[in-house]
Specification:
Elements lengths: L2 E16 L2 E19 L5 E11 L16 H12 L1 H19 L11
Antiparallel strand pairs: 1-2, 2-3
């Protein structure tokens, strides 16, 4: 079981004008997707995801990046830094547990055939 993670951080909220700058990102709508190399009976990988929002500190804009120059990788870094390493690892651990439960469910639902 090898799980890879992918962030989607392409949706953001901005202040149109803040601290003399325009389009200042202050909130990120994120999704973290996990995909396992193990596949189900139909050949599909096991996947799980979690989503949320993360506010960003805009009190210091000395290293401001123009909105048109901001990359997804940059925003992902901001989100992970704002969350903290422990919280990010907690999200990944939760996704790992979701996938493990899909692979080896503790309970299944069946219908009678009678």
């Amino acid at each position: 079981m090898a799980i890879s993670y992918e962030w989607n951080v392409n949706t953001v909220d901005v202040y149109p004008s803040e601290g003399g700058e325009s389009n200042v990102i202050y909130n990120v709508h994120w999704r973290l997707n996990a995909t396992d190399t193990e596949v189900d009976a139909e050949g599909n990988p096991y996947v799980a995801s979690v989503y949320g929002t993360q506010s960003l500190d805009t009190s210091d804009l000395s290293n401001f990046t123009n909105f048109d120059s901001v990359t997804s990788s940059q925003v992902q870094g901001w989100v992970e830094a704002a969350m903290g390493e422990e919280a990010v690892q907690g999200l990944k651990d939760g996704l790992d547990a979701q996938i493990a439960a899909l692979i080896t469910p503790a309970s299944v639902t069946k219908q009678l055939v009678a």
